[in-house]
Amino acid sequence: MRTLGVAVAVLLLAVPAAATTSGLRGVVRRGPITPVCSAGRPCSAPAKEIALTFARHGHTWKTKTDDEGRYRIALRPGVYSVTIATQRPGLPPFKATVPRGRVGVRNFTIDTGIR
């Protein structure tokens, strides 16, 4: 009977670990960064140290981009609303789908409003 209790405890501990095998990674860029884009000069740049908030069923998870605009977050599979800290007010949140059993790729572009 004691062996059964230990086996159940091990299985319960393994469930949260399995849930973290899915998530998202990607790059956040901002642009345009100049009023006029020209050949040979980038029109966008990495969004450095920017907070991303993923929301689903009343819960939120947060992560931050690195100096190259990259992020990675472990999430359960499903569809999330994503807000980015520097996103212009009034714009709807982005949507992102987390696949089951793997880390998906979802890149974002923040419109700076420069024209």
Quick rundown:
By secondary structure, this protein is of the alpha+beta class. The protein is 16% helix and 41% strand. It has one domain (2-32, 43-111): Carboxypeptidase-like, regulatory domain (Immunoglobulin-like), CATH 2.60.40.1120.
**In the residues, how many domains can be counted?**
1
- N to C succession of SSEs: HEEEEEEEEE
Q: Please name the CATH topology.
A: Immunoglobulin-like
Reported CATH architecture: Sandwich
| General shape | globular
How large is the count of helical segments? 1
Poorly predicted sequence stretches spanning 5 or more consecutive residues: 4-19
Strand content: 35-45%
Overall CATH class: Mainly Beta
Radius of gyration: 19 Å
Terminal CA distance = 71 Å
Layout of SSEs?
Layout: H1 2-19, E1 23-31, E2 45-46, E3 51-56, E4 59-64, E5 70-74, E6 78-84, E7 94-98, E8 103-105, E9 108-111
Parallel strand pairs: 1-8, 1-9
Antiparallel strand pairs: 1-2, 1-5, 3-4, 3-6, 6-7
Could you characterize what this model shows?
The structure is a single chain. 16% of the residues lie in helices and 41% in strands. The chain has one helix spanning 2-19, and strands at 23-31, 45-46, 51-56, 59-64, 70-74, 78-84, 94-98, 103-105, 108-111. The strands form two sheets. Strands 1, 2, 5, 8 and 9 form a five-stranded mixed sheet that branches. It is globular, with a radius of gyration of 19 Å. Mean pLDDT is 84; it is low at 4-19.
